[in-house]
Amino acid sequence: MSPQKMINQPIDHLDLLESHAIFILREVVAECERPVLLFSGGKDSAVLLHLAVKAFEPSGLPFPILHIDTGHNFPEVIEFRDEFVKAAGGQLYVASVQESIDQGRVVDPGHGESRNRLQTVTLLDAITKHRFDAAFGGARRDEDKARAKERVLSFRDAFGQWDPRRQRPELWHLYQGHVTPGEHLRAFPLSDWTELDIWRYIERKKIDLPSIYFAHEREVIERDGMLLSVNEWIHPRGNETHHSQMVRYRTVGDVTCTGAIASEATTIDEVIDEVITSTVSERGATRADDRFSETSMEDRKREGYF
């Protein structure tokens, strides 16, 4: 595209979101010494990594990538993670919840039980081990009311804890990224994006995703109003039966608590049509840890959760 055509090209909503996200990425790198990008293999972290590559090209990523592995993974997501990070030219660190269990840092909840909350200890241990002072995450404010409270730069104390009453003001998109030794911050460049924005950006930039985000036939059981994949950790209980159904996933997490939705959407356009008509956030609809947990997302975030 010629320079003149680029100048005349109209700027739209997605362009503004992209520009702001890139600004946040560059600002944190300029103010912090050892940032890291958290990567789950989901759609939001895929967009975030794409933006990070764009923000620092052609120099390459100035920070590593960290995945917190619960041990209860969708195989398609792990395969995608390795391929996507390699294509981005990133250095991948994997912190294992199973290792945290083996070391006695956390208690194993038992076979088939969710390990999502256990990730907090594994994450904080990895941050301490590698002396990270900033962690980029793909969280968005429209996912949960606790995340809606969080600022773009979310400061954590020496114990990794978050206090929503002690956040720094961010007027006019001015950010203060200074932290003292032992503290760190979480940075959320996608805070102002919505699920629909994410999908439209994926469509525009042709960003690859794990195949589970599109409709496919899978053996599932219905439990607590959710469709859970039958696998080595999830089996029918009591009167439950499994059946084959066309489903897709709106979010990626521990397979023991991440539900699918009935869907025939096999293309991005069809997924976007479903998102437009949805009245429930992806976490509210398909994450058991948010719907049925005894602790709220805000309580978990106070402890140091993502």
Automatic annotation (TrEMBL):
GO biological process, one term: sulfate assimilation
Example of a GO MF term: sulfate adenylyltransferase (ATP) activity
Pfam families: PAPS_reduct (PF01507)
EC code(s) of this entry: 2.7.7.4
NCBIfam families found in the cross-reference section: CysD (TIGR02039), PRK05253.1 (NF003587), PRK12563.1 (NF009214)
Organism ancestry: unclassified sequences, metagenomes, ecological metagenomes
Family per record: Belongs to the PAPS reductase family. CysD subfamily.
Ranges of Basic and acidic residues composition bias in the record: 284-306
Uppermost EC category: transferase
Annotated organism of origin: freshwater metagenome
Coiled coil: none
Swiss-Prot/TrEMBL keywords: ATP-binding, Nucleotide-binding, Nucleotidyltransferase, Transferase
Region feature (Disordered): 283-306
UniProt-recorded name of the protein: Sulfate adenylyltransferase subunit 2
Phosphoadenosine phosphosulphate reductase domain mapped to chain residues: 35-259
